[in-house]
Amino acid sequence: MTSKLPYSIFFLLISSLFEIQAQDLIKTKKQEEVNCKITKKTPDSIYYSYIDNNLIKEAALPMNNVQEYHYNYYSDSVSIKGSDPTNKKYEKLRLAANTGWGYRTAKTAGSINAERRKALEGLRSGLIWSFNADYFFNKSCGIGLKTSFFNTRDNFDGYYWDNTGISYVGNIQHDSKTLYIAPEFIWRMYVSDKKNSIWMGISLGYMDYYRTMNGDTGNLFSIYGGTLGGGLEVGYDFHITKKLGLGVSLYYEAGALIYYTVKTGNGYQYKNDDVDAVEGLSKIGVAFGFRFYN
Length: 294
What we know:
- The protein has helices at residues 7-21, 114-121, and strands at 24-28, 33-41, 45-52, 55-62, 66-70, 93-104, 125-136, 141-161, 167-191, 196-215, 218-239, 244-257, 260-264, 269-272, 279-280, 283-293.
- It has 294 residues and is mainly beta.
- A hairpin with a 4-residue loop joins strand 9 (167-191) and strand 10 (196-215).
C-alpha cells in the first residue's frame, strides 16, 4: 500500500529544493539585482524562476537590459519573497529646477482708460523660474512644495498721471513680479521601460504680486498685495544618469488680486477693493530644467 503526501508537504519540498538551487544572479543595466534560478538563455532573452510568497514564478528579461549574469553566485540558498524582482525601485525624492517663458492670460480690467490698458499689455509675457520638491509614497503618488517666480518688464515713452494731480511725461520702466508658493499633489507614470516618466501636479497656495512704474524722477506708481492661487502642471522627465535628469513642463497658474495697496510717487496711498479694478494674475507657460532623484 502506497501513501500520498499531502499537497502542502509536497509544495514545501519543491520550494525547499528550489531554494537550494536558486543561487544565480542577474544584474540589469539599471543596477537592479535579481536573485533567482536561471532556467534558459537565448540571444534575445534570459529566463529565470523565483519564489514569490511561496509560489514559484517564471519571468524573463531582454538581453539588452542585462549587464551581467552569474550561475551559482551565492554560497547560501536564496529565495525571493514579497514582490516581483523585476519591478523598478522607484525614486522617492524628486527635485526640479526650471526656467522658461510665461504669458499672462488674464483680461485687463475694464474700468481703466485706453492709455493705462496699453501700458498693461506690455506686461503680458516674461521669464519664469520655478522649483519643486516632491516626495512619493509609492511609484505613482506623492506630495511636495512648488515655488515659482514670474517677472515681466516693459520700457516705453509715454505719460502718467494719478488722482492727486501728479503727472509725468518721458521714459517709463514698467515692471511686475508674481511669486507663487503652494503645496502640491503629484501623480507619476513611468514610460520607456520605466526609465522616464510623465507626471501631473495640482497645487493650491499663496500668490504675491508687486507692480511698479518708474520714470527718470523715481517711482511713479506701485501696487502690491496677495491672494489665493491655484496651479496645474504636466511634464515629462527623462534620466541622464541614475540620479540626474532633464525635464520639460507645461503649466497654468490662476489668481485674481481684488484687494491690494496702491501707492503713488508722492506718497499717497490707499487700499483698493473695487472688483472692477481687479488685477488678473492667471498665466500659462512652458519651462525646462534639471531633475535630481533619490
